[in-house]
């Protein structure tokens, strides 16, 4: 026997509700990279994402900053690696000198 239109609509609403619950759970499980707030937390060899998290700027801005050459970076294939010491020197306005950083 065929379901009435009213029952079909109710079934459809339940499907949508269960899907939206799943989507909310899935979204909440994603881990966001926490901003790095302390220079001591920076790794010796940084990735573009580390610079982005530390400066709290967008991805395009970060790639532009890296491409400007203000601090030393190395391209390895499709990845970019940045020297922490060079980045810290640039960030602290001491691009000419080298800081001994533990």
Structure commentary:
This protein has 102 residues and is mainly alpha-helical. It is 49% helix and 12% strand. It has helices spanning 5-29, 48-55, 59-67, 84-91; strands at 45-47, 73-76, 79-83. A three-stranded antiparallel β-sheet has the order 1-3-2. α2 (48-55) crosses α3 (59-67). The longest helix is centred in the first third of the chain and has 25 residues, at 5-29. It is elongated, with a radius of gyration of 24 Å. The model has no long low-confidence stretch (mean pLDDT 78).
Can you tag this structure with a few keywords?
single chain; 102 residues; elongated; mainly alpha
Side by side, the strands of the main sheet go: 1-3-2
What share of the residues does DSSP label as strand, in percent? 5-15%
Q: Whole-Å distance between the termini?
A: 76 Å
Shape type: elongated
Helix count, DSSP H or I runs of 4 or more residues: 4
| Biggest sheet details | 3 strands, antiparallel
Give the class from helix and strand content and strand pairing: mainly alpha
Average pLDDT reading: 78
Q: Unreliable runs, pLDDT <50, ≥5 residues?
A: none
Helix/strand order:
HEHHEEH
Rg measurement, Å: 24 Å
Helix content: 40-55%
Number of strands: 3
Topology record:
Layout: H1 5-29, E1 45-47, H2 48-55, H3 59-67, E2 73-76, E3 79-83, H4 84-91
Antiparallel strand pairs: 1-3, 2-3
Short description:
The protein has 102 residues and is mainly α. It is built from four helices and three strands.
